[in-house]
Amino acid sequence: MVPGWEAALAAIGGLVLGAGIATWLVRQRERRLLRMRVELEARLRRDVLPVLERRADVLGIPPADRGHNDDGPIALVQTLGRAIKLIEESQELPFGDTLQASREDLEEELESAEA
Prior knowledge:
Layout: H1 3-59, H2 73-91, H3 95-114
Helix pairs in contact: 1-2
């Protein structure tokens, strides 16, 4: 063989070997990420979703606003969390409003007591 061919074959062999190793590493990473996602979804279904569903029941969130199980547990947790947050925020009164309401109630009671 011509000496230049040996170097070219070695370079091509190195590229093929490198591409093979890179492909193997990428597949290993994909498998690991898939396994982690499956484990995360299982933990969400087991630990988080029951708590959020009980909270949604307590707050009276209608089933239509809770999301669908077909979307997967991650999307379901996000939808339930968003719905719970909206309900809780709508039920909170700022401190100033509470004081104002109490003052108005007190004034009404005083006026009715004077009359």
